[in-house]
């Protein structure tokens, strides 16, 4: 996922879970390969992305 590639260890697990969804959505929309839209995003989608980011962070520790 591009979020771990972008932020690496700058965000630990606890910090990832404290990110506001509005900020997370902005960062996701800035990823060049992302094809979704702001209107198509839901809280559930953002929670899934957040969890995936944590798993990738753990895998790289």
Describe the protein in words.
- This protein is an all-alpha fold.
- The protein has one domain.
- 61% of the residues lie in helices and 0% in strands.
- The protein is built from 4 helices and no strands.
- It has helices at residues 2-7, 13-17, 21-29, 43-59.
- The radius of gyration is 11 Å and the shape is globular.
- The model has no long low-confidence stretch (mean pLDDT 90).
Q: What are the SSEs and their pairings?
A:
Elements: H1 2-7, H2 13-17, H3 21-29, H4 43-59
How would you classify the helix and strand content by structural class?
mainly alpha
Kindly report how far apart the N and C termini lie: 15 Å
Strand residue content = under 5%
Compute the number of strand runs: 0
Biggest sheet details = none
Low-confidence stretches: none
Overall pLDDT? 90
Morphology: globular
Share of helical residues: 55-70%
Task: Provide tags for this entry.
4 helices, mainly alpha, globular, 61 residues
Summarize the structure.
By secondary structure, the chain is an all-alpha fold. It has four helices and no strands.
């Amino acid at each position: 996922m591009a979020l771990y590639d972008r932020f690496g260890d700058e965000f630990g697990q606890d910090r990832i879970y404290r990110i506001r969804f509005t900020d997370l959505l902005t960062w996701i929309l800035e990823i060049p390969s992302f094809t979704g839209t702001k209107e198509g995003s839901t809280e559930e989608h953002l929670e899934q992305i957040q969890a995936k980011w944590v798993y990738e962070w753990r895998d790289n520790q």
